[in-house]
């Protein structure tokens, strides 16, 4: 499910700045950001996408995702 993220990691020249929506921490790499999300926030998974069953730490995140998940049957 996270395969798309691996493509991003293969571009070392691309400077990205990721801001955690939950605790405002800033990360310079997507892997650090993903690790942070998994370890600190996503373990709290309480909200589920009604369409595909994906879990989210916040209601807002699940709502945003669901808006792009309409293609799921
Ligand atoms: Zn955070
Ligand atoms: Zn979904």
Automatic annotation (TrEMBL):
GO MF entries: zinc ion binding
InterPro entries: Znf_C2H2_sf, Znf_C2H2_type
C2H2-type domain mapped to chain residues: 18-46
PROSITE patterns xref list: ZINC_FINGER_C2H2_1 (PS00028), ZINC_FINGER_C2H2_2 (PS50157)
Gene3D superfamilies linked to this entry: Classic Zinc Finger (3.30.160.60)
Keywords per UniProt: Metal-binding, Zinc, Zinc-finger
This protein's name: C2H2-type domain-containing protein
High-level lineage: Eukaryota, Metazoa, Ecdysozoa, Arthropoda, Hexapoda
